[in-house]
Amino acid sequence: MNRRLYERLIEVASAQKCVYYREIAPLVNLDMSLPPDRAEIGRLLGEVSQHEHALGRPLLSLVVISHEGNKPGKGFFTLARDLGVYTGPDEDTYWNTELKRVWAASKRESKRK
What we know:
Blueprint: H1 3-14, E1 19-20, H2 21-24, H3 35-54, E2 64-65, H4 74-82, H5 91-112
Parallel strand pairs: 1-2
């Protein structure tokens, strides 16, 4: 798992914000205008979410959103289904509910430090 990316997502969640893919791609030397780099950012974000899921926490990568739709890309929702954490009625409801969980979890975590 890419530590730099992981730490940035924790910062974003702790601030109770979201970040665009194109804003985080440079952290890992990727260019979102290139299809292979878009696939790679999805893979890296998937690693973060799988790590968090293994620890019983919500999928942290959901704080990364696209300009089109202002929510995570399709790959995020596919991973959430594969992990068995998304069976919901629709993506928007799931994302909004989980975003609140990620923000609450990051708030609890920062209080422990």
